[in-house]
Amino acid sequence: MKTAIVGTGYVGLVTGTCFAEMGLNVVCVDIDKNKIDKLKDGIIPIYEPGLEELVKKNYSDGRLSFTTDLASCINDVDIIFSAVGTPPDEDGSADLKYVLDVARTIGKNMTRYVLVVTKSTVPVGTAALVRSTIQKELDKRGLEIEFDVASNPEFLKEGNAVNDFMHPDRVVVGVESEKAKKLLSKLYKPFMINNFRIIFMDVPSAEMTKYAANAMLATRISFMNNIASLCEAVGADINMVRAGIGSDTRIGKSFLYAGCGYGGSCFPKDVKALIKTASEHHVDLEILKAVEKVNAEQKKILFRKLSDYYHGDLAGKTVGVWGLSFKPETDDMREAPSLVLIHSLLQAGCKVKAYDPIAMNEAHRILGNHEAIVFTDDMYDAVLDSDALLLVTEWKQFRLPSWSVMKKLMRTPYILDGRNIYDADELTQMGFVYECIGRAYNR
Length: 443
Ligand SMILES: NC(=O)c1ccc[n+]([C@@H]2O[C@H](COP(=O)([O-])OP(=O)(O)OC[C@H]3O[C@@H](n4cnc5c(N)ncnc54)[C@H](O)[C@@H]3O)[C@@H](O)[C@H]2O)c1
Fold this sequence. Notes:
By secondary structure, this protein is α/β, with parallel strands linked by helices. It folds into 3 domains: 2-201, NAD(P)-binding Rossmann-like Domain (Rossmann fold), CATH 3.40.50.720; 211-297, N-(1-d-carboxylethyl)-l-norvaline Dehydrogenase, domain 2 (Orthogonal Bundle), CATH 1.10.1040; 299-435, Rossmann fold (3-Layer(aba) Sandwich). Helices cover 43% and strands 14% of the residues. The protein has 17 helices and 14 strands. The strands form 3 sheets. The chain has a 6-stranded parallel β-sheet with strand order 3-2-1-4-5-6, sandwiched between helices. The chain has a 6-stranded parallel β-sheet with strand order 11-10-9-12-13-14. Nicotinamide-adenine-dinucleotide binds at residues 6-12, 29-32, 35, 70, 83-86, 98, 101-102, 120-121, 154, 156, 158, 265-266. This is UDP-glucose 6-dehydrogenase. Pathway: Nucleotide-sugar biosynthesis; UDP-alpha-D-glucuronate biosynthesis; UDP-alpha-D-glucuronate from UDP-alpha-D-glucose: step 1/1. It holds the Pfam family UDPG_MGDP_dh_C. Residues 320-424 form the UDP-glucose/GDP-mannose dehydrogenase C-terminal domain.
């Protein structure tokens, strides 16, 4: 079976590479020539643990290839996955421009049966739109060619994407025909050895499942952040509360961590898009509106705490920032809480010394050259002569710093822990002022 994956980003490259690893013949397609040229030269355009070795191995074994020319491979493959971006439009809805571009190219060039599968996160009704877009192009050409559309939303997590794809909890597939079901069952068969479940359903339900999953996870995070604020006010400790409720099997332990807000390419845009879809159907998703609002406030929390500590006088202060990517093990900076924080710090007249183990280039690209930001080569350089250290992203290497070295390097030993990873008692005993999220302090 031959497969094309259109869109060679976080989802497309991982999908294509993992299918190739299972023995399939895969061509990865992208309109970004620079990206495709890099991949052909063995340079992986994103940071994703374990991906580089797999790409190089499957490319050199000839199962994985790269091209910018979708038209040239449409009639050589049985299945085309569309994994292009679906960024938010100005009104919050998912912009389907790229998805429909791919559909048009398929309709303009197909000469035989093909199964078109949407892997991107798309609103309910998109598969029908993809179908009518392809059909229109076939009608223009006066051709009657059978094809199927299906929905196979992706649930991988950046930072653990290869493992998630190889060992998913489940694979959700929305189909409209037995033929499509058979083809996708065959495609995912090699993964069955790992005993995961493939859940077949109708297409609209599959499209909705992805949004509902992300909305639920975002809700858990905002819920815990909301409860964390109350913990601070009443003198409770959110970490204890998390341990207490997470051990209830009805609740479970995942996604209960209070912090400085969720970011990334998925939760913010998917929550927005779901609210928009609902409003188009006259349904008011009040819970998700609150989830968004709480998250927007939470992204400001570190700045607010810092400002409170210095009684609003931040001009001229030097602030070290550890962690810039939206979460550990990725270089993705989309909607990262660090961006909101750094913009506020700069506005308040602070000097920012920023460090991230992987996302430095991406951060530099997004934040540009600013005289008040220094991107340091080392995590300790970021705290030299600083008036505070703000931990934004909980990379493993930040977990056990040498506190004695830190104490000597910092001008003011003030640690503001946005991910609750440090031991308050240990730091206080060492003479640091320590604050985190969801716990009351006696300054
Ligand atoms: N990133 C994640 O963790 C994740 C997880 C699950 C689902 N998703 C969803 O998957 C989709 C892709 O996300 P991503 O993070 O991989 O995006 P991305 O921005 O990393 O990659 C998208 C790629 O598509 C390419 N592209 C755009 N138009 C094209 C066209 N006409 N032909 C060929 N290539 C084209 C772009 O150049 C880009 O390389 C989105 O809908 C996203 O919501 C993402």
